[in-house]
Amino acid sequence: MWKWLILIVAAYVLYRLFANDVLKKKKASKEEDAAEVERKVAAGEMVKDPQCGAYVAVDGNISVRDGDRIYHFCSYDCRDKYLQKLEEGGRELPPQE
Fold first, then answer.
1. Three-class SS of the chain
2. Are strands 46-48 and 55-57 parallel, antiparallel or unpaired?
3. What burial letters (b/e) apply to 29-55, b meaning 16+ CB within 10 Å?
4. What is the pLDDT of residues 20-71, one digit of tens each?
5. What are the domain boundaries of the chain?
6. pTM of the entire structure?
């Protein structure tokens, strides 16, 4: 009986040690990812999608040019919603090339 009790307690302690270690690694990874995004935004490598607010790479291929300004989007859905919002507001963009 005591052997089983000691074995269960030891297994629980080992589980808590490893679970805690995994959680720390996930948290550190999320912090590193956030720091990397901030660095890329500051360096001008990433910009904010004007429709949904997600950060996307500047060299992405989903973009719209409005005069001198270029808007980058995370998806075609966001781009289409943004264009629709502009048209509903009485603003028309020149045709895409």
1. CHHHHHHHHHHHHHHHHHHHHHHHHHHHHHHHHHHHHHHHHHHCCEEECCCCCCEEECCCCCEEEECCEEEECCCHHHHHHHHHHHHHCCCCCCCCC
2. antiparallel
3. eeeeeeeeeeeeeeeeebbebebeeee
4. 666 666 666 666 677 777 777 766 678 888 888 888 888 878 888 877 888 8
5. 1-43, 45-97
6. 0.54
